[in-house]
UniProtKB/TrEMBL annotation, chain A:
Pfam families the UniProt entry points to: Fer2, Fer2_2
2Fe-2S ferredoxin-type domain ranges (all copies): 1-75
Name under which the protein is recorded: Xanthine dehydrogenase YagT iron-sulfur-binding subunit
Alphabetical UniProt keywords: Iron, Metal-binding, Oxidoreductase
TrEMBL record, chain B:
Species per Swiss-Prot/TrEMBL record: Sphingomonas endophytica
Gene Ontology MF terms in the entry: xanthine dehydrogenase activity
The protein's name: Xanthine dehydrogenase YagR molybdenum-binding subunit
InterPro entries given in the database record: Ald_Oxase/Xan_DH_a/b, Ald_Oxase/Xan_DH_a/b_sf, Ald_Oxase/xanthine_DH-like, AldOxase/xan_DH_MoCoBD1, AldOxase/xan_DH_MoCoBD2, AldOxase/xan_DH_Mopterin-bd_sf
Broad class of enzyme this protein falls into: oxidoreductase
UniProt entry keywords in alphabetical sequence: Molybdenum, Oxidoreductase
E.C. designation(s): 1.17.1.4
Domain annotation Aldehyde oxidase/xanthine dehydrogenase a/b hammerhead: ranges: 61-175
Amino acid sequence: MSIVVNGLAVAPPGDPRVSLLDHLRETLHLTGTKKGCNQGACGACTVLVDGERILSCLALAVQYDGRDITTIEGLAEGDALHPLQAAFIEHDGFQCGYCTPGQICSAIGMAAEAKRGVPSHVSADLGGAVTLTREEVQERMSGNLCRCGAHNGIIDAILETVA
Amino acid sequence: MSIVDDAKQAAQGLMMGAMQKLVPLAPDSWIPGGVPDPLIARKHGLIGTPVSRLDGALKVKGAAGFAAEYRFENMAYAALVYAPIARGRVAAIDSAAAEAAPGVALVMTHLNAPRMKNMPVFGSSPNAVGPHNLPVLQDDRIHWNGQPVACVLAETQEQADHAASLLKVTYDAEPSTTTVAGAVANGTEQAMFFGQPLRNDVGDAEALLAKAPVKVDQTYRTPRHNHNPIEPHAATIAWVEDGLVIHDASQMVSQQAESIGAVFGLAADKVRLTSPYVGGGFGSKGLWDHQVIGAAAAKLAGRPVRITLSREGVYRTVGGRTLTEQRVAIGAQQDGTFDAIVHTGLSVMTPHNNMPEPFILGTRCTYAARSFALKVEVARMNMLANTFMRAPGEAVGTFALEVAVDELAVELGIDPVELRILNEPDKDPLSGVPFSSRHIVTAWRQGAARFGWAGRDPRAGVRREGEWLVGTGCATGTYPYYRMPGAEARITLTRDGDAVRAQVEVAAAEMGMGTSTTTAIVAAERLGLPIEQVEVGYGDSAIPGAIMAGGSQQTAAIGAAVIAAHNALVADLLKLAGNDSPLAGLSADEVGSIDGGLASRTDPARRESYASILSRAQRGSVSVTKAGSMPLELMHWSMHSHSAIFCEVRVNAVTGELRVSRLLGSFDCGRILNPRTAASQFRGGMIMGLGMALMEETQFDERNGRIMNPSLAEYHLPVHMDVPEIEVLWTDIPDPHTPMGAHGIGEIGITGVAAAVANAVWHATGKRVRELPITLDKLL
């Protein structure tokens, strides 16, 4: 059994209670993925599994055998930031930086959902192609809380790059 | 509070009172800021240009290390058990099953915890920051519903959490006070804030109110709030030799180290507390029970401990903003001038802390009136100690005051912007001292123009777009300029060939306000160095001095300490330069820092670079540490940040759903040092104000004193869909009496917003909501 994290195969935990989030943070020491509530309410723990965004606090690590997981640490290519990471700096899309990795991973997953035509609560046409307007991005990112109030910069950064 | 603490507060209050009589009379030149900071006059530097935060790359890569991300060898994980009663005692603890559970290293309760002193409670000495004066796991007493009664250590968090669930604790409940009515029935008392009563009387306000031809007189209510930083409180703790090392999440690094040291009888230099990154604080990231419990457990188990509060644990053990019930009455002449402002009411705190919500602070300086009656009373309840939360006092006080002003504007038939400008004071309305810098009228005019306020139809409930009723509202916000004593700065210049590098160290905290970036900008300008050659050290109790990221004062405190250290550095460099330097014969007052060296202020050709001075003196480096001046300017001038907030709301006539469609903040906060991070501070505060207006409430079960919504699923924060594109603008007029001409900006953003929303809701619907949050049940 192995989980692939940022391209590297790692062993799953021996204790089946361990969440994917805690496995990343405490066993693999990949602390870029954050724990904000541990109950799926804040989005700080968002990672990409085979390109889809999930809340890693609600996922048991042992269930991810053979799956390909990308965390915030897997986005930059060496010193070259992912364009969305760079845009977050340019638009000041954070203050404390704690929700930031989750916002960035979530936005990448969100953009892929839109490309696949997945509608949202504010989509007028449930069957058509999705255009990521500001309102669409706001709606689709509302599961990622930010308490510092960097919402405007986050949406600007997403609209400029992945939307 | 104990009688001793009250006496100490009273003594501090007396001394403050004497100072407040003398300092206003002193000549300006005796006062810090009496001679303007030379940086104010410098127009073409880094100050005022947008600079991206220097720690940005680390944060977007997830590489910034927060408190719960440090590791020690052989570290154990902690889990806490919380009492479910509001008052009483622990009757029995059966820990057999927990102790036998896999991986468990320790079960610690009051029966086996090491003996410790109580935390030094906030205000009892300059660096005391304890939240309450209760023993922590020292006896069987329960003082609030949620108090930790046991701590389990295990090899993993999962094992600790499971073992904690196996602890069987039984309780003997005793009579408690968990209702506001019950607390009031027990008796109220005059609220004290930093040793002085929250009370002001000018003239006979009640008599003038009674005679006033136009008046409003209403009661406004604000609920409990929680800070809810996305990073839960956490600490990674180890005893190293005879000292304590804590990687913490702190907005008061040195004070926290000293206070926890006092609990364990350690000298200040035996506690090393670091906190380079803090995942949001808003007043909450201070010393609470969990750090004490974690350190005690580490001591008892003989191994390092990570203690991370669950989100529920944060609600149980980290206090928030308390509730208020406020009466605001304003009496006015037909021309709109105010005869009387009455702002009185109740705040609730506990028997074991002293933090009344000081909701009259903003009312002291906002408007001119012929009379004032301002008073805060407190009642005490058995609950978790409440604490400071963003703009304590002003955030909720401006809601009451500014809705009342709007109600009065309606009564008078005067535009609410014009009514506010009409009652603009020309000096501090209570103390009579001059304002240091007040350009709120400019902020109102600029904001109104940008928002398109002119021509607004004042009638309520007459604009409808389909199902949606539309309205606009405004309010003013205010927050004082503070500068606390105790800040120090250490500047070290190190020679690097023909250049120098500067290290500027301050015991400050960075929660995302941009402090480390702004400090680098200001230090670079002051030293005459490119920002790339300046490194800022912070967030470490090993750095001299004590600075708090609170009261919006950190930038000013750092600024004044860096001024003092820079002056000392110049003096030291002149001594090192000696008689062979072009600077020979000049005094420290006659030279300034420019282009990587010192130069005569009157003859810039007389200059020598830092590297040259150090090289000739055969020195590799020079280092100075200095404290900032005493903040006497606060008594000599009336010093405040100001805002004019405008918003547009849409209320669904069918469902009562409330959306804020436009929000604009026009600020007067002195000179803005870094427009990029400042705009984020303004917006961030305003969004927390939106939360206050629309949804935020810590629900408290009055039957048993239990917080009912201790989670981010049930305590609602503004999400992306709730936040419109927020416009911010500022006057950018420097205050001639502050370091860099700047004012604090961390708290002004939240003030006034809830009132602006409530006023817009009235304009949209005709419904006047006087109790926050403005949920849809209040609009149906």
